[in-house]
Write a structure and sequence with these properties.
InterPro entries: ARM-like, ARM-type_fold, DUF1822. Belongs to the CpcE/RpcE/PecE family. The structure is a single chain. The protein is α+β, with helices and mostly antiparallel strands. The chain has 4 domains: 178 residues, Trna Endonuclease, Chain: A, domain 1 (3-Layer(aba) Sandwich), CATH 3.40.1350; 46 residues, no CATH class; 114 residues, Immunoglobulins (Immunoglobulin-like, Sandwich), CATH 2.60.40.10; 67 residues, Leucine-rich Repeat Variant. Helix content is 34%, strand content 26%. The chain contains 14 helices and 18 strands. It has a 5-stranded mixed β-sheet with strand order 1-6-5-3-2, sandwiched between helices. The two termini are 42 Å apart.
């Protein structure tokens, strides 16, 4: 009995091929990729699992359709560390399988690696939908290399070619016939520019850094393609990414004043900077005059007695500007951080708290790391702060700042935040005259995320856990 999602696929295309598999098939594929530590992160593990499961099911189907006496020779599984898809050959025809978990298939998206790397190019590209929970796989359409190159929409940012569902041939029987009677369906593509062994070694070193995502978008595509096409270089990169590296930075330990090497308070980080940073406030070293004390009292009352978030933000910001390190002020700001449901109010209060009392970790911590000149010779700092919320979640702030010697961030400097599966959920690009870029989001305890800072082919990545 087909489950609800497969029924939707059948309704979209009555000529699709539906293949069912068992829990044992699924478990076998999972054990092969998960327990042998063949992949470096959760995203690549899951990608490999779905591709291997699809490959196993399709092998049986193809064996029956073509009465094959020998097992098919599939592409090397190390490719799943980097990109979605798998391939095999039948006679002089090469076929690429692109799997997807999407339920409503409106388009067919093929990674550029399978289209523009001469060694990876195929004649036919099969669109496969796999739903592990429903133990079902659907072959819902196919296209050719000729059509992908001539009709596909190229995305220069994601490095993909895309065809709409209606542009695919949806009769899978036509695919089976084409394999036997049609000539090769490949568009002529140029060979890749030559890459020296020295450049390849440098790229492998750069891309071997542990991350929660594939490094396929971190460098120019032609350089990336040269690495993948060379079996020796691809295998070396794959092996280097499996070498155990330092665990993700544990933000929760910061609450216990256990800091990772290279992370420090913002006062320490910018101690020698000549830039007038907003968080480098001069705290009052002596008791304020009576008028200022009266103003402080009114601001504290405004924080506690008004429900207007705008007024609370103004009051919190002003207390930070006054900069008097007083227990009543600190308590009022902590109260506001814990009580408010407004994220802007929460972070305004936190910034003022850390201006007045930089080491206060009662409800959160904010530290910075000097990245030096790692990003194409630009002096940068990564700043991460987090606050505990009353609903049990954590409010997170990530910032990229310029360091001394440079007035603005280089235009095009990109900060990308990725979840633990490697999916991008935020990306900010520096404009002209930006001194900093930042992003705020909420997460749950135990979750992981990564921050990637990139400029051209240069990239720095840091992994964090909460």
């Amino acid at each position: 009995m087909f489950e609800q999602n497969i029924v939707k696929l059948i309704n979209h295309n009555s000529k699709a091929v539906i293949l069912e598999f068992s829990e044992n098939n699924k478990e076998k594929a999972w054990l092969q990729v998960k327990h042998q530590e063949k992949y470096s992160n959760h995203a690549s593990h899951w990608n490999a699992f779905l591709n291997l499961l699809s490959q196993n099911i399709l092998s049986e189907w193809l064996k029956e359709e073509f009465d094959l006496s020998q097992p098919l020779a599939w592409s090397s599984p190390d490719i799943w560390e980097f990109v979605n898809g798998t391939s095999f050959s039948l006679g002089d025809k090469r076929i690429v399988i692109i799997k997807s978990e999407a339920i409503d298939n409106q388009e067919f998206c093929v990674p550029q690696e399978w289209v523009d790397i001469p060694k990876f190019v195929a004649d036919y590209y099969l669109a496969v939908q796999i739903i592990p929970d429903e133990l079902s796989l659907c072959i819902w359409g196919f296209t050719t290399h000729l059509d992908l190159k001539n009709q596909g929409e190229y995305d220069a940012f994601e490095h993909t070619y895309t065809l709409l569902r209606d542009d695919l041939v949806q009769d899978i029987n036509a695919f089976l016939v084409s394999l036997e009677v049609c000539p090769q369906q490949r568009e002529a593509i140029p060979t890749l520019p030559k890459t020296s062994a020295n450049e390849a070694e440098n790229l492998i070193k750069q891309l071997s850094q542990a991350s929660a995502y594939s490094p396929r978008l971190d460098i120019d595509f032609l350089k990336w393609a040269a690495l993948l096409e060379n079996d020796e270089w691809r295998q070396k990169l794959y092996e280097h990414r499996l070498i155990p590296t330092k665990a993700a930075i544990n933000l929760s330990s910061w609450l216990e004043n256990i800091f990772d090497t290279g992370w420090q308070t913002l006062e320490e980080l910018f101690a020698n900077s000549q830039v007038n940073w907003a968080f480098r406030n001069e705290r009052l070293s002596k008791k304020p005059d009576p008028n200022t004390l009266k103003q402080i009292k009114n601001l504290i009352e405004q924080i506690k007695n008004t429900l207007d978030e705008g007024q609370r933000q103004i009051a919190a910001e002003r207390l930070g500007e006054i900069g008097y390190q007083d227990k009543q002020i600190i308590d009022a700001l902590i109260y506001l951080i814990q009580e408010t449901k407004n994220e802007e109010t929460r972070w305004t209060a936190a910034e003022s708290l850390w201006m007045i009392d930089p080491g206060n970790s009662t409800v959160g911590v904010k530290l910075g790391s000097n990245l030096g000149m790692q990003l194409a010779g630009n002096p940068l700092a990564l700043i991460v702060g987090f606050l505990e919320k009353s609903d049990g979640k954590v409010a997170v702030l990530v910032q990229v700042h310029v360091m001394e010697g440079q007035k603005y961030l280089p235009p095009g400097c990109r900060m990308t935040v990725l979840d633990e599966t490697g999916n991008i959920f935020s990306e900010i690009v520096a404009r002209e005259s930006d001194r900093a870029i930042q992003n705020k989001f909420s997460a749950k305890r135990g979750e992981r995320f990564s921050v990637k800072i990139s400029l051209g082919d240069s990239c720095i990545a840091k992994d964090f856990s909460l």
